[in-house]
UniProtKB/TrEMBL annotation:
UniProtKB keywords: Amino-acid transport, Cell membrane, Membrane, Transmembrane, Transmembrane helix, Transport
The ABC transmembrane type-1 domain, residue ranges: 15-204
Predominant location category: membrane
Location of this chain's protein in the cell: Cell membrane
Record protein name field: Amino acid ABC transporter permease
One Pfam family named in its UniProt record: BPD_transp_1
Organism from which the protein derives: Streptomyces hygroscopicus
Length: 215
């Protein structure tokens, strides 16, 4: 308990840092995932090819390697001076977007084909059909796997602590390097992650129940 009480500001800062990275990465992953899922089901071949390449490349690349590219390649070539937070959120968001894309695409495939055909018969474009007809119906199917994806994202955010970001893993490393009992440090860090993941799980259960009532 003394480890927590004596270093409460550090734990609080690490907790808020993990929340910030998780929230920013989740927002980026959600937007990119939906866009890439639209590309993957698009009737335009170049968009389908781009979506397939995006998912295949990111899902089969280790997350640590993406962090290395984000921190040691991107600033040198494209965006010098970018903050570690932005680089970490970008790497984690892009990686997670490939999993979000596949979840959304699976949800799109559950919508009866007749829905899209009816929309096209009314003169709606593909993207209008996707935005106004298909995606709203696919949401109910997509929410359960999304919960697992964002919980995994929260745990993956620990890698950001090794790249100059203040978050829970970084706090545990700093305290353990100072000689504090590693067992107690990991216990408090684990409890912090449990709080975040339980909150995410509860939020998605609430969304799922709300959508079931609206069905």
């Amino acid at each position: 308990m003394n480890v927590l009480l004596d270093h409460l500001p550090q734990f609080r800062e690490g907790f808020l840092g993990t929340l910030s990275i998780t929230a920013a990465s989740a927002a980026l992953a959600l937007v990119l995932g939906i866009v890439i899922a639209g590309f993957r089901v698009s009737p335009i071949p170049p968009l389908r090819a781009f979506g397939t390449a995006w998912v295949t490349l990111l899902r089969n690349t280790p997350l640590t390697l993406l962090f290395l590219i984000a921190f040691f390649v991107i600033p040198q070539i494209f965006f010098p001076g970018t903050s570690p937070f932005v680089l970490a959120a970008g790497a984690l968001g892009c990686y997670t977007s490939s999993f979000v894309c596949e979840a959304v695409r699976s949800g799109i495939n559950t919508v009866p084909l007749g829905q899209a055909e009816a929309a096209r018969s009314l003169g709606m474009t593909f993207f209008q059909t996707l935005r106004m007809i298909v995606l709203p119906q696919a949401t109910r199917t997509v929410i359960p796997p999304m919960s697992s994806i964002f919980i995994a994202l929260t745990k993956n955010s620990a890698i950001a602590g090794a790249f100059s970001n203040t978050e829970l893993f970084n706090v545990s490393k700093l305290l353990s390097d100072k000689g504090f009992a590693i067992g107690w440090i990991f216990l408090w860090i684990a409890l912090c992650y449990l709080i975040i993941t339980f909150a995410i799980s509860g939020l998605f259960r609430l969304l799922e129940s709300r959508l079931e009532v609206a069905r």
